[in-house]
């Protein structure tokens, strides 16, 4: 029997709550007009879904059919937009005033930026913000800017250490590594004793954060408006990664499409461990070494550095385009898609983590063991800065990480270059 998240786990999620922050640069939208009665609403809602088109998209389309059955006067134009292109594509469409969707599945790090630019409709007082008391506080905070709600949380996530139990067992390990030092040792043992790779890295800024957090570092200190990416703590974290690569504990990273390469190697049993999130559950379980043996698929918190175990809090929100001609239909669509019932269905079928507390106890969610498996990783999740510039902080770090992984630089000069790039993004912030 699969287990539900315990009350202690929910309490741990609640303990992550903080007040959302903005840049104080004024209102990013006007108050919404009074919504029409649901039965009177007509129109077409175009939704850009940024989830995986193969493993996740079909489930969302099933829920859309349920929505259209409940609201036969509203039709949904479903468009799957690759996540990597969605931010720039939406900004271009919103800026031009042509081609933007009515509703966007928005990364939590994009909401403040889009709201600050006036691209999002405020949702307070509309059906889109339904039963807000049910939301876990941190996912809910990601949708707020300057005291208003511009996004409602669809799913929450973080990174965990995913591992092949059989490969670790062959290398002499009954449990996954709990520290970064143990991670290196276990990866080297897997390499020497099984012939498989120990660890595959995704050369992406988001996936670098567990190492930085583990040593007490971060991108920035929002409260003091200070850039901390080149601090001694952040340097120590990235040096852990550099050592994993140079020691051979991590297989030589692919610099192009590293996510797919690492994921494929893990699913095929060519590496024992990767860092990834709950969105990859369905993909992993369809892989060669897990499809017929799902119990071989392990999930654990990211290993701890010298300061703590910590991985970035992520997820997605539903947002509504400020220029939508179908606001009332969009509000109802968001309300339906983000209900506890819909979240429970998504959790059950995909293993994605709900943002509403009641969804965790729904039978459909408790039927999926991956929901319970992600309990411990979520307890170590670290909230990211909800500032308009947040999404822009990733690319300089990605560029630096790729140079580091390719042997073109070392940690200290790489992070100094990143900090310099951040000064051009965060005007007036100190180093």
From TrEMBL:
Pfam families: SBP_bac_1. The keyword Oxidoreductase does not apply. InterPro entries: SBP. SUPFAM superfamilies: Periplasmic binding protein-like II. PROSITE patterns: PROKAR_LIPOPROTEIN (PS51257). GO terms for biological process: maltodextrin transmembrane transport; maltose transport. Residues 1-22 form the signal peptide. GO terms for cellular component: ATP-binding cassette (ABC) transporter complex, substrate-binding subunit-containing. This is Extracellular solute-binding protein. The lineage of its organism: Bacteria, Bacillati, Actinomycetota, Actinomycetes, Streptosporangiales.
């Amino acid at each position: 029997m699969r287990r539900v998240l315990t009350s202690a786990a929910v309490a741990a999620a609640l303990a992550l709550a903080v007040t959302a922050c903005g840049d104080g640069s004024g209102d990013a939208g006007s108050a919404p007009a009074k919504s029409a009665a649901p039965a009177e609403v007509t129109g077409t809602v175009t939704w850009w879904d940024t989830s995986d088109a193969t493993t996740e998209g079909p489930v969302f389309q099933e829920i859309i059919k349920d929505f259209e059955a409940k609201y036969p006067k509203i039709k949904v134009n479903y468009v799957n937009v690759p996540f990597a292109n969605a931010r720039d594509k939406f900004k271009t469409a919103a800026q031009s005033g042509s081609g933007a969707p009515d509703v966007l599945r928005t990364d939590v790090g994009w909401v403040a930026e889009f709201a600050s630019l006036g691209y999002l409709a405020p949702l307070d007082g509309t059906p889109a913000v339904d039963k807000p008391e049910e939301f876990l506080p941190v996912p809910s905070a990601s949708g707020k800017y300057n005291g208003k709600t511009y996004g409602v949380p669809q799913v929450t996530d973080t990174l965990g250490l995913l591992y092949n139990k059989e490969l670790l067992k062959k290398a002499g390990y009954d449990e996954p590594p709990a520290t970064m030092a143990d991670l290196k040792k276990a990866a080297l043992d897997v390499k020497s004793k099984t012939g498989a790779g120990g660890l595959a890295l995704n050369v992406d800024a988001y996936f670098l954060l567990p190492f930085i957090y583990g040593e007490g570092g971060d991108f920035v200190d929002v409260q003091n408006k200070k850039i901390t990416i080149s601090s001694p703590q952040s340097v120590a974290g990235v040096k852990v990664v550099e050592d994993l690569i140079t020691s051979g504990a991590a297989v030589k990273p692919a610099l192009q499409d590293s996510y797919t390469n690492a994921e494929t190697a893990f699913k095929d049993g060519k590496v024992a461990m990767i860092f990834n999130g709950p969105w990859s559950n369905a993909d992993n379980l369809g892989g060669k070494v897990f499809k017929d043996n799902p119990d071989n698929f392990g999930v654990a918190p990211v290993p701890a550095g010298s300061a703590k175990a910590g991985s970035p809090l992520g997820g997605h929100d539903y947002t509504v385009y400020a220029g939508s001609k179908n606001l009332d239909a969009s509000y109802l669509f968001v309300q339906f898609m983000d209900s506890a019932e819909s979240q429970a269905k998504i959790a059950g079928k995909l293993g994605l983590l709900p943002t509403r507390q009641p969804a965790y106890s729904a039978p459909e969610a408790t039927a999926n063991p991956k929901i319970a498996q992600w309990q411990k990783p979520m307890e170590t999740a670290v909230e990211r800065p909800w500032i308009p510039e947040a999404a822009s902080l990733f690319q300089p770090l990605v560029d630096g990480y790729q140079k580091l992984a390719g042997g073109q630089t070392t940690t200290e000069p790489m992070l100094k270059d990143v900090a310099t790039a951040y000064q051009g993004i965060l005007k007036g912030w100190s180093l």
